[in-house]
Request: fold
Amino acid sequence: MTIEDAYFVGIHRYMFRCGIPAKIIGVSIITHENTAPKLCYHVEYSDDVTDWKAIADTGNYKIISFKDILVENIPKVTE
Reply:
């Protein structure tokens, strides 16, 4: 069995740091004022900046491995 870190890459042009892989470091439920709770990936960029990305937004991101990053197989920003 092999266990690898997973990386989040936003592919929509309006996403924060779209096209830049961020390591998924957890999953959290985020609630903003007057909104329903959302299940989110907690991600961390290489410069230690963290963010939360809604898991339900499946058309706006791709999940890749570190091996993908090494061979520059990073999804392109499409929209």
About this structure: The chain is about 5% helix and 40% strand. Helices lie at 66-70. Residues 3 and 68 are 15 Å apart (CA to CA). The mean pLDDT is 95.
